[in-house]
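yo

u said u wanted the structure for the complex thing, so here. seqs first:
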Amino acid sequence: MLRAVEPLEQAIAARAGTAAPLAVRDLTVAYHRKPVLWNVDFTAPAGGRIAIVGPNGAGKSTFIKAVLGLVPRVGGEVLVFGKPVESQRRAIGYVPQRESVDWDFPTSAVDVVAMGLYGRLGWCRPVRRRHLEEARAQLDRVGMADFADRQIGQLSGGQQQRVFLARALAQDAQLYLMDEPFAGVDAATERAIIDVLRELERAGRTVICVHHDLQTVPEYFDHVLLLNLRRIAAGPVKEAFTEANLQRAYGGRLAPPELVAAVRG
Amino acid sequence: MLAHFWSILSLQAGYNTSVVLIGVTLLGIGSAAIGTFVLLRRRALISDAVGHATLPGVGLGFLTAYALGLDGGRNLPILLIGAGATGALGILSVQWIRDHTRLPEDAAIGTVLSVYFGIGTVLLSYIQSLPGGARAGLNSFLMGQSAALSLAEVWIIGAGSVVVILLCLLFFKEFKVLCFDQDFATAQGWPVRKLDLLMLALLLLAVSIGLKTVGLVLIVALLVIPPVAARFWTDDLKGMTLIAGVFGGLSGYLGAAASALVPRLPAGGVIVLTAGALFAVSLIVAPKRGVIAGAIRQLRFRWGEAERRGLMAVADGRNPTPVQAGILRLKGFLDRAGQPTARGLEAARATARDQALWLRYLEDFPQEAMACEDWARVPIDRVLPGDLVAELERRLRLAGS
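structre next:
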């Protein structure tokens, strides 16, 4: 279903040196004058599966929100495929945290997934039958075809998470930003998310996930961005996801056995 | 009297009355449509602030028209422009307080609402002291009086309502994603602030044209009650908007008819009472979300639980409680003497097996079991695939031996 990015296109982009899926320079964000992110630099490799890792309150979600322009940036620059993020909305798919919406909203799973198509539809064009069929196909990809017509409040937490994932898939984006997709989900949902991540990787799409479970980082991701207010480390998991870096990111808050287990994966 | 009321309702009581009826019906539909989105955007109370904030504008509009010598001050377009202007100022005041102080939005709304209304009442009492001002009829802006509407006024109301309805339909998809998930809408590139402004502008338009009919004190009811009542009947935004439109239109239609029948009756009150009655009926009898449906669901659940516990007692060779025994007897699981029948023993065995399997499932697959909506509520064979149930049975036997 996904079109693979042309290798040639990728090669040209790589030579141009500016067209990384996401390039963040000197990003600073503050809430009520208190800094949450401080001079963060990060460049996402094309086609990578990137985990953003750090302790609670480290600014992981804020990083994603600042990239998308959902929270104001005090300073810094965000380029998506070499252009300002505001002009690249169609290239970005977004999976917000599940708690961010009211699940009693009068709408069904398939209607929520169809929202992923709104960007492509444009102003004032209504959702038609074929769009709903496309939304159903996306629900099928995350194993939710049987729940398409349920009111979203009637779904379990994991199923709601999969609805959000299907909505992002419907956006057919080149760069995906996901805020804790694995948080509090059941095994079936975890499986579905992993499958989707692999599928996106095969199609050459770039995925950036806020991730809380250190143990699974080496298994699910190939790159990592360690954050705690500032950038602690970033790079391929093998190089950047080290005991020393984790210690620096988490300070004394991480029990050593858990830390060691995470690094050895 | 009844015959006359019927002739009003069936649009046979003269051209003027019929036009008023149609205009106010359109007003009800339009207010309900924009009200649906405002409600889902969690801004229902804003409409109350807007309503009250229009009063100083009505007063200023009157004074302007009075000074210009237009209709002795009662020039509806000028009054509506004034109402719209201070209504907009009211919204801006609420937003400014919310964004630039640490006050919560409800405090901002309460403050703005009462201050603007206070300014309005001072202006009105000044107007009443003017020569000819006492009969200015501005009081109809407080409580509403559709019978006093002139034809020109009804045309303004009708046209404004049609504009609100059409724009709600045109921007249905945009408003939907904005109301459901503002962050996603922003990430997708929709100009969220502008959409919010459009929504508030439509709200302001609905409030302004509704002022003279419903009155600014009660206008919030025409915006909020129909969608709230409609929510009871549907889980779909299109359905909710449609039903809200029907409820709002019906309220406007009946209210205007009553006001035509008894000219001294405040139309606003009757319109809101109709909407309130529709709300009360919805609250009680709606099939899924209504109070009765909820009570029946609860009763069924308790009944099923009592039956299950009773059967477990039978399976364990204990005595069921009197309530449980009564239910089991009704189902033919116990005979008159309180002894289990053959069917009762069969059912008890099945229940015991089901419960043991569900518990095994919870122990061996805790994550899946916790996520399973039907856990222990529905027979396990109907929920889980056959091979998984067989595996659980094998594990049960292993644990038992």
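Residues 15-40 of chain B form the longest helix (26 residues). The mean pLDDT of chain B is 90.
cya
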